[in-house]
Amino acid sequence: MPTNFRVSSLIPTGLIVDSVVQDGDAIIVTAHAGAQMAMCPLCCSPSQRVHSRYIRQVSDLPCSGRGVCLRVVARRFCCKAPQCRRQIFAERFDETVFAERSRRTRRLECVVHHLWLGAGRQAGGRLRQAPNAACQQ
Predict the structure, then answer these.
(1) Could you tell me if residue 107 is inside a domain?
(2) How far apart are CA 84 and CA 1, in angstroms?
(3) Residue 25 has pLDDT above 80, yes or no
């Protein structure tokens, strides 16, 4: 039975959807950042020159009983400032979407944190370390 849902309800703000695939019990959403440029984290100079791209996989809140995996196409930029030591840097996403090096979106992390507090330390610790099956492929 097909499931009707709005893709916009699955995506954190600031991301643009490229594709949505339903794979068994998982929904895989591929997206990219809407910004045209990024700021160097070291010298704060803007850059539009893309060096390369890579895919970040983060788990998000489930939808209709299915796990949601966000595959975000992140870009690496070249810093144009001649005095900057960092020549290549990865674009940073808004902290409200997901933190640097995070495997979960902020909204999923908030739910897991509250479940951890409610379930107690030992049960919550197991829950916190459990991988999301949607992103395991």
Answers:
(1) yes
(2) 55
(3) yes
Instruction: Count the neighbouring beta carbons within 10 Å of the beta carbon of residue 80.
Output: 14
Q: How many domains does the chain have?
A: 1
Residue 54 lies in a domain: yes
In angstroms, what is the C-alpha Rg of the chain?
17
Residue 7 lies in a domain: no
Q: What is the pTM of this model?
A: 0.71
User: Within a 10 A sphere around the Cβ of 51, how many other Cβ atoms?
Assistant: 14
Which structure tokens are listed for 63?
């939808």
Residue 106's H or E segment, with its range, is helix 106-119
Q: Is residue 86 part of a domain?
A: yes
* Side-chain half-sphere exposure of 126, counting CA atoms within 13 A: 4
pLDDT digits (tens, 9 = 90+) for 120-134: 666 655 655 555 555
Q: How far apart are CA 101 and CA 112, in angstroms?
A: 17
β-strands 26-33, 66-78 pairing: parallel
pLDDT on residue 59: 84
